[in-house]
Amino acid sequence: MNQKRRNIVTREPEVMSGELVFAGTRVPARTLVDYLEVGHSLDGFPTVSREQAAAYLRMTLEVAEGFAGVRPA
Prior knowledge:
Layout: H1 3-6, E1 9-10, E2 21-22, H2 29-37, H3 50-68
């Protein structure tokens, strides 16, 4: 994982059993996405900054855009 992405999310075996979490927190990325998906606000996660959440969404969009041009075999 490059340094820029490491500032957004991390995965360490000793933190939340190795789940992908927002850097500097114990908040799993999946949990936050699920929480937002049902209509809750980011305010429920005070340890995750708005900048981190926005950067994560941009990062996932970049990955999705990379797959958009790939055709199944």
